[in-house]
C-alpha cells in the first residue's frame, strides 16, 4: 500500500521560518544570560561597596577624637594682709647711744682722710686753636705791640751781623690768663729767638679766650719782628 503525504504536513516549505525563529530564541536566551550575570555582578559590587562604607562609618563612629576636658583651676589661697599700727608715743622704743672713751690706745690711732677725685672737665684740659672769643692782651693789639717794642732788646750778635726778620713764638693762654708752654716756631738766629721767648714769658696776664661763654685754654701764635734802624 503506497503512503501519500499530505501537502499541509510538509515542513520543508516552512524550514527557513522555523530556523529563523530558533536563532532568534537562542540569541534572546544568550542575551538574557549575559544581562543576568552582569546584573548579579553589579549587585554584588554595589553590596561590597555599601558594606565597606558601613564598616568605615562604623570605624569613624567608634573613634574618640574629643580632647579630654581641662583640669579644674587650682584654688588660689587668699592672702590676708595684716597692717600693724605702731603708736609713735609708745614708751618701749629704746634709744641707742654710743659713748667712746679716749684711752691711751685710741690716742695713737691715725685717721687718714679719703681724697675724693673730682671729675675733670674736658674743656679745662683741652687746648683750643679756634674759639668763639680769642684771648687778648690787656689793652688790645696796640698795647701788645707797644709792650714788645719797649721790652725787646736787640741781641748784640744779631745787630753786629745785621740779622733782621720775624721770629714766631707759640704759647698757651691759660683759663686764668697766664702764659704757659712758650715755644719757638721759627728763629732767624743771632739770639733773636731766645730774646723773643724771654719777653713773651714776662708778659702780664691776658684776657682768656672763651668758648660758649666759658674761659678755656687757647693756643696763640705771635710773630715778633726784629728790625735795625
Radius of gyration: 66 Å
Structural classification: alpha+beta
Based on Cα principal axes, name the global outline.
rod-shaped
* Mean pLDDT over the full residue set: 75
Question: Largest sheet at a glance?
Answer: 5 strands, mixed
What is the CATH class name of the domain at 122-226? Alpha Beta
H/E element order: HHHEHHEEHEE
- Uncertain runs with pLDDT below 50, 5 residues or more? 57-63, 79-86, 89-102
Number of DSSP E strands = 5
Amino-to-carboxy terminus distance:
201 Å
Describe the structure.
This protein is of the alpha+beta class and 229 residues long. Among the domains are: 16-53; 122-226, TolA/TonB C-terminal domain (2-Layer Sandwich). It contains 6 helices and 5 strands. It has helices at 15-62, 104-107, 122-125, 141-151, 156-160, 192-201, and strands spanning 127-128, 165-173, 179-186, 209-211, 214-226. Strands 1, 2, 3, 4 and 5 form a 5-stranded mixed beta sheet that branches. Strand 2 and strand 3 (179-186) form a beta hairpin. The longest helix is centred in the N-terminal third of the chain and has 48 residues, at 15-62. The chain is rod-shaped, with a radius of gyration of 66 Å. It starts with 14 loop residues before the first helix and ends with a strand. Residues 57-63, 79-86 and 89-102 have low confidence and may be disordered.
